[in-house]
């Protein structure tokens, strides 16, 4: 059965619980940071059982991804069908630069949640969002430099935005988001 043609519908009570859980988790993160996000506290604040949380989200990293999800959907919509230069209608180099700048801002905005989510397992970073970013950059690289290995080069452009590396560079080394963007601009300029 095609999941897209026939999406699994969420029960009304499950949808209501999801909204309560995510609101409680967001409130806890806003008040206490990601370090204060415990499954027991979220369950208590949402008025649901801890088992419900574990069944729904798996663990804290699953809950972190759920909190990240709405912002991620907005970001993907912007680079897939939004206005140029991030969306279609601008040249490939301009789109690459706009995409990497927007991704830097988006990563910094939710850095602690991404850090928790991306370090949950060795390959946690390489889920759906990363695959979308990678495909987008590979396509743009192919438009600019058809002979280049866009598959590998997309990873090189995304590497500086890995949450653990970005957090380390910003917090331990004093690197600013503007400096990261400038370095990415230098990499993109190599395609011209």
Automatic annotation (TrEMBL):
| One Pfam family linked to the record | TetR_N
Q: Which UniProt keywords apply?
A: DNA-binding
Q: Which residues form a coiled coil?
A: none
Superkingdom to which the source organism belongs: Bacteria
Q: Does the keyword DNA-binding apply?
A: yes
Give me the segments passing through the membrane.
Answer: none
Pinpoint the HTH tetR-type domain residues: 15-75
The Swiss-Prot or TrEMBL record marks DNA binding at 38-57
Q: Which InterPro entries match?
A: Homeodomain-like_sf (IPR009057), HTH-type_TetR-like_transc_reg (IPR050109), HTH_TetR (IPR001647)
Which PANTHER family does the protein's record reference?
HTH-TYPE TRANSCRIPTIONAL REGULATOR RUTR, POSSIBLE TRANSCRIPTIONAL REGULATORY PROTEIN (PROBABLY TETR-FAMILY)
Protein name per its UniProtKB record:
TetR family transcriptional regulator
Record organism: Nonomuraea mangrovi
């Amino acid at each position: 059965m095609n999941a897209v043609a026939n999406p699994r519908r969420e029960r009304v009570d499950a949808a209501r619980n999801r909204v309560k859980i995510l609101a409680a988790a967001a409130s806890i993160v806003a008040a206490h940071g990601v370090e204060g996000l415990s499954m027991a506290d979220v369950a208590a604040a949402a008025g649901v059982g801890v088992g419900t949380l574990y069944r729904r989200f798996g663990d804290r990293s699953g809950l972190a991804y759920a909190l990240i999800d709405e912002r991620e959907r907005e970001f993907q919509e912007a680079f897939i069908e939004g206005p140029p230069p991030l969306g279609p209608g601008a040249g490939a180099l301009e789109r690459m630069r706009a995409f990497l700048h927007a991704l830097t801002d988006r990563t910094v905005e939710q850095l602690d949640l991404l850090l928790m989510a991306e370090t949950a397992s060795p390959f946690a970073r390489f889920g759906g969002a990363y695959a979308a970013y990678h495909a987008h950059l590979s396509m743009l690289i192919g438009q600019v430099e058809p002979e280049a290995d866009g598959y590998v080069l997309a990873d090189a452009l995304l590497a500086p935005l890995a949450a653990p590396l970005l957090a380390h560079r910003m917090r331990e080394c004093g690197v600013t988001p503007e400096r990261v963007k400038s370095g990415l601009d230098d990499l993109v300029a190599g395609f011209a």
